[in-house]
Give the backbone structure.
Amino acid sequence: MKKIIHQLLPFIKKFKIHVFLNIFFNLLYALFSSLAFIALIPMLNVLFDKTTVVTEAPVWHGLGDLKNYGQNLLNYKVSGYLADGNAQMALVIVIAIVIFTFLLKNLFGYLAMQHVMYLRNGVLTALRKDMYQKIIQLPVSFYSKRQKGDVMARILGDINEMQNSFFIILELIVREPLTIVFSLALMFTISWELSIFVLCFIPVAGFLISRIGKSLKSNSLKAQQESGRLISIVEESLTGLKIVKSYNAEPIFTANFTKSADSILRLSNKIGLKNNLAGPVSEVLGIATIAVLLWYGGKLVLIDNIIEGTTFIAFMGLAYAILTPAKAISKASYKVKNGMAAADRVFEILHEADQMEDHSNALQFKTFENNIRINNISFKYENDLVLKNFSVEVKKGKTVALVGQSGSGKSTIANLVTRFYDVNEGSITIDGINIKDMTKKSLRDQIGLVTQDSILFNDSIKNNLLIGKPDASESDMIAALKIANAWEFVQELPNGINTNVGDAGNNFSGGQKQRLSIARAVLKNPPIMILDEATSALDTESERLVQVALENMMKNRTSIVIAHRLSTIQNADLIVVMKQGEIVEQGTHTTLLQANGTYKRLVDMQSFE
């Protein structure tokens, strides 16, 4: 608990004014909650004709005598009305005091809740913003071993769980304990013997409730992890819906979903059973305490005549005022355990170290002048090396193509040059500067990336293009679309560049999506372009259109082209043939054909496709 509160403090400090106001109003709420029951005593005295007769107006002796002065002044006024035979007016006065006290109690309670609401919602929004920023900033490698659904569950479900459970403590940490303290203080002034009975109840209740709730946190953690898996199943099902349907695999995915949902059901029931025990346990203990109070208090009133019956009734009200917050605290302690499990998962992401963070003295890479050198690099995603002692130079203005069978490490080069991953051995330099010594932002500002999968976002064509250059004008966008061979179909759309592309760009064909992706890269206008199998998923007609767009884009640019279809890279200045992470051949299209080696065999194989 201390650890989580310590982690939350930086977020809470942003809203400290609401913390102070919440404490202030809760202090007043707790005070008037206790005074509300004391205010019942004069009313009961009038009703049962037990009012202490005061015939002389009391004299003010300072704040130290405030209680006696207030009590005597009230009795003096009430006695006067009773002596004049105006009992109704005396009753109105004492009832007005009761109403006013309860009114102030509820007013301060409302104001306290308002400020804790601002605090809670503000902290959770700040948490959610920081978490999203962290998720966006973490390297691609962080997600290679994680389910997207689990991350989504943390930023959505777990933060909501913190709001619904853990943050209840912000409401209770001041109000309920102070209510107990003020009530006990007033109870001791009435009868210390009766107060001891109430005090005995609190530790017993706390012990029993803590025993019941001991395993709640572990069950909550399991439930939240399973919720992440459930979201992943839904996300994967929707992403691959065509495959699911075409293979009639609905029963498999339904079974996976059902298994996960049933697991959450079992865990939720376990958590719920223990949560539901909080109320009955504290209720039974409360009734037991009240029963003992009635027995012992009745003896003090009826037999020993130590306290008045009207005072005893008010004392019972104060006892109830203690039992209610004690019960609320016991219920909250269960919910807090759920919230602690959620908070652990949230802070695990927030405290995740960025293994590829920029150095403190990282350089700003501003202009590309000479070349890109890949120097004897080796790299592995997990255990086996994907690249081994790989070296190549890409000179400014030249096009270098990487070819080879699937799994030969071609796309890995794109991942390493853009620093989605860092090399294990060797180095990648641009103009002689190691890319690890540059800020990632300045490096990527100089690079345009077009991937095999045309990644478009569910927004307008315009906003998808502006990702590359937020300040671009409409004429700039149209020019980029023309270079990418996309303006011909965009201008025919009813809303032109304001047309929504749909989820993942599904309102357009594969070739159209790819040309929009190329237009985005053209609009960015970077000096270095990386094309990762940009035409491999297209039909022949679309490939021709996209290839023209690519050639337009690569003019006067330095390009690294990862190619599956060798017909698209025949004009490259250098073709590097890869096999199992190593270079087996390199040269121009003509020289490699004459060498009659691996490249020639790949060309011959594709000529029969």
Observations:
- Residues 371-607 form a domain with the Rossmann fold fold (CATH 3.40.50.300).
